[in-house]
Each structure stands twice: as C-alpha cells, then as structure tokens.
Write a sequence for this structure.
C-alpha cells in the first residue's frame, strides 16, 4: 500500500512529525495575524502556506495512520489515538478554510503584493473571521497535543 512504508519504516512514524511542526506554526501565525494587525503584511502569506502544509501533512498522517493501524491488526491500545487523529484531520481542514478566508478578507497592510493597503471585507465580517480563526487555531493546537499524547501512550504506555 502506498501509505504503508517509506525507507523500511512505517510512513506514519515519519509524517506525524510534520503535523507536530506545521500545525503549531500555523496556529502561531494565525494568532499573530489576527492579534497584531501591523504584522499582517509579513504574516498573511506565510500563514496561508503553513496552513496548506498543515493540511497536506495531516492528510498524509491520517492515511498512513489508517494503513499502520490495519497493518498492526487494529490494536486496541491505539483506538483513542485513531479517534483523536480523525478529529484532528477535520479541525485542520477547518483551520485551512478559515485561514484562507482570513488571508483573503481580513484587511491590513499588504504591500508585498501591489504596494497598497488591503481594505478587506466589511469590518463585522473581518471581526467574525478573526474570532473564528483564533478559536479554530487554538482548538487545532490543543488537538495536536491530545492526538500526539494518545499516540505516544499507545506506543510507550503510561510510563513516567
């Protein structure tokens, strides 16, 4: 299976690290983008790029995780990790969509593209998108920790 192995290792063991890096970086970029308007010109496009990388890495982790789970014959110890991973996928999808909306519709300095400030959508729409972006970003950060913790406990047990 394509999502099974890479370099003789289970692919999931390799790609989950991308999720652990890209999702928190997207979270940080999204919060900075919303909370610090003077920095929007520098954060807008990297935030969107990180959101794409988060989406792709989460998809690869999900698919490779399902393949690994099946390869291990559905171990009961990994069920919680699998459930949290599915939730994480959908939270990352929501993060990507709202990040895209934020990048397109929240105004602010954006002189890297055309030399002019972006007016953006009506102020109320910008506020709603900004609140949603921060809330979903925080949820994504929490879900990464919960999913990773469940995966680590599945592998290592509850050793101190």
């Amino acid at each position: 299976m394509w999502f099974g192995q890479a370099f003789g290792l289970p692919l999931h063991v390799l790609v989950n690290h991308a999720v652990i890096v890209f999702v928190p970086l997207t979270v940080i970029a999204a919060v900075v983008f919303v909370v610090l308007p003077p920095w929007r010109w520098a954060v807008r496009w990297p935030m969107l790029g990180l959101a794409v990388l988060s989406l792709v890495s989460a998809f690869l982790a999900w698919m490779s995780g399902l393949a690994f789970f099946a390869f291990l014959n559905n171990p009961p110890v990994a069920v919680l990790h699998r459930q949290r991973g599915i939730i994480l996928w959908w939270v990352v999808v929501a993060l990507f969509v709202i990040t895209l909306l934020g990048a397109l519709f929240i105004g602010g300095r954006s002189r890297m593209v055309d030399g002019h400030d972006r007016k953006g959508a009506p102020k109320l729409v910008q506020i709603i998108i900004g609140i949603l972006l921060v809330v979903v970003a925080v949820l994504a950060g929490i879900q990464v920790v919960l999913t990773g913790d469940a995966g680590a406990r599945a592998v290592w047990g509850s050793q101190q």
